[in-house]
UniProtKB/TrEMBL annotation:
It comes from Amycolatopsis viridis. PROSITE patterns: HTH_LUXR_1, HTH_LUXR_2. It comes from the Bacteria. This is DNA-binding CsgD family transcriptional regulator. Coiled coil: none annotated. InterPro entries: Sig_transdc_resp-reg_C-effctor, Tscrpt_reg_LuxR_C, WH-like_DNA-bd_sf. Pfam families: GerE. GO terms for molecular function: DNA binding. SUPFAM superfamilies: C-terminal effector domain of the bipartite response regulators. Keywords: DNA-binding, Transcription, Transcription regulation. Residues 695-760 form the HTH luxR-type domain.
Amino acid sequence: MILLDEPTERVCAAIKSGQLAPVRLAIVAPGGYGKTAVLGHLTGAPGVRLVDDAHLLTDAELSEVAGQLDDDTTGLVIAARPHPRPAALNQVLGRLTGQLVLRPFDRPRTEKFLAGAGRPLQADAVLAQTGGVPGFVRLLAAGDGELLAAFRHELDQAGEDTLCYLLAAEAGADPDLLAALNLPTATAEAVRATGFLGPDGRVLPVAARALRELVPADRRIALRLRLIRRQLDRGGPVLSLVRPLIGTGVTGTDVAAAFEVAAGEATREPALAARLYEAAVRAGRPTNAVGSRWAEAVARAGDFDTALQLADQVISADDAADRAEGAQVAGAALAHRGQLARSAELFQWSDTATARCFAVIGLTGTGRLAEAEKLLAGSKVDGPPTLLAGAVSSAATGVLESVTAQPTVALSTLIRSAEMLAPVSDRVLLPDSPAALGALVALHSGEAAIAEPLLERAISSGVLVPRHRLLLAWIAMLRGDEEGATAQLRSAGEKLSPRDWLFAVGLRVGLARRASDLAGLRRIWIQAREAVVRHPVDLFTFLPFGEFEVAAARLGERDRLAPHLRQARELLAGLGDPPLWASALHWSGLHAAVIAEQPEEAASHASALADAAAAGPYFATIARAAGCWLKVLGGEVDAVEVESAARDLHGVGLCWDGARLAGQAAIRTSDRKAMLTLLDCARVLQGRPGREAVEQTGGARLSERERQVAELVVAGLTYKQIGDRLFISAKTVEHHVARMRQRLGASSRGELLAELREIVQVAS
């Protein structure tokens, strides 16, 4: 099948009709451009001689062709490649009066050709493979057998220099490196004449594939090694040359050095860098020579177990020159695994300026304030004032300020740190990011609106993406946006570090609790128990541990969590009970006490929150709300006060907490008007339109036992299962359900379930 473009079709039609007689036309184009196809299209043109592959003719044959030009009645169309160009061919071409230019297929011509050939191939994919070279499009459509046979013939005809050039170009050699091969000058022209190169000088993918499949591997590897040696001598980049050699088993000093150099070039692709360092060791490079950099690449790729193994080998080797770097890698990996205390020890032992700053963060996070302050005060600069050095120093200062200064001061410092680190963050192994630390400070101080853009910028940089997405999910959950929180949680992926997994489990617990999904909460609680056992409490994990505390109260498992909460409070005491961090733990403790119906315990938390109220508007808001909770728990419900406190909580980002306060107050008051007002307030704070309470509740207050039964009915338990859970008979359960149905005015079981589900969700 022949597909000519419009200009070529017009010329061919004019030749065949005799309008251009006598024609004197040259068709000069690389292989595959369709010269032979055009000549075939002209077959039968009256008085026209067609000459194909004129570049391969002998001088005698070309002389005979030239003789025909003396006859004015004979037409001549000659097709040739641009190389080789013998002098006799130049003489013939010089006497012709026109040249036909052949162009690659465009998208419409490619689609038309593929349709005519009956091949269900995508035109864009074919163009990407072939560059639109007509002959290659035809071969690709014909199938692998014909394609490889055609390329094999072409390669068999190519000279040694041409093949060497093609292999080098396929390997990714730049023009300077190609020139360093010292091939004859005409080699480049010969290669271009094959049609194997695209306009940018690179080997077309379809031709590159043929080279890989048709040229023996040992020959291709030998050529690459030759290029690599030259590139190493020139100090040029080797990554593109070295990458295909991974896993081939090649060894030797040069290739090992090349793997190591290439790994250093792949800083933005840590997984690739890790494979290259491994390849360098397999090729003969001593492990200790690359150990810390290998461990760092592995850690940045997310494999903290292997990173720790490699780093430990470096630290324990007396002759390793980079033991300090190895300790820094191990410290970062342990931080991701949740071992912040051990991480700080390794950073201190490493004793570089950067490591000391990381140690300050770890010491502060584990309650060792005096050590952290002393280390930061005595830290000396041991290198140039780079962006990294400034960012890490600011991060350490910001974390200390979160304990010793106003929260706004700490947040400002951490934001500056994150902005300073952004340009270089994708090349550094961090135990935690300033963006994540800043977001934690923001979440603990009611500044979620500041945390969001901070986290989104960090995600765009590609660093610690799961960590930042989980914190965005936490913001969404606190706001009552369960759908947004679930989407961010899902986007964080399944391959999580232990620290990130702790936050992911905390989110799942929190979402199940907020959805009043008691069955789901019990399922996820199994993972929560494992997370609690595996992950020590530190300052930066109060969010998930707070969720675990509230869930434990809901499930009657507070004793299981008690040792960890005691550890958290001892940690806070070591830091002087800073309001920023202590308030979060007291707030979750208050909720746990409310659920467990422990007024004295709730009062102690409310008192601690009141003591911290002077730290800022956020802390004053939750202190007022805590006081409201105490009154509600004691049966004293002031609808105006409760609604004000609930709306204030909503205003500082604790939207769900505000709705819950209003909902709990509503079901505990005996004042029908107050109940309706507060239920309506709860719905509005949840982002749902308010409705007339008569339509919702029938004006009735649920007793404590009825609320318990309602939760279990909504969870899908049978009357017998509910009775077993509450130690009452199934008949008594049925009686409670009948009373609730009467009070709520539900005409069917489905309507009753809908009403109970909404009441439970609002109040829980």
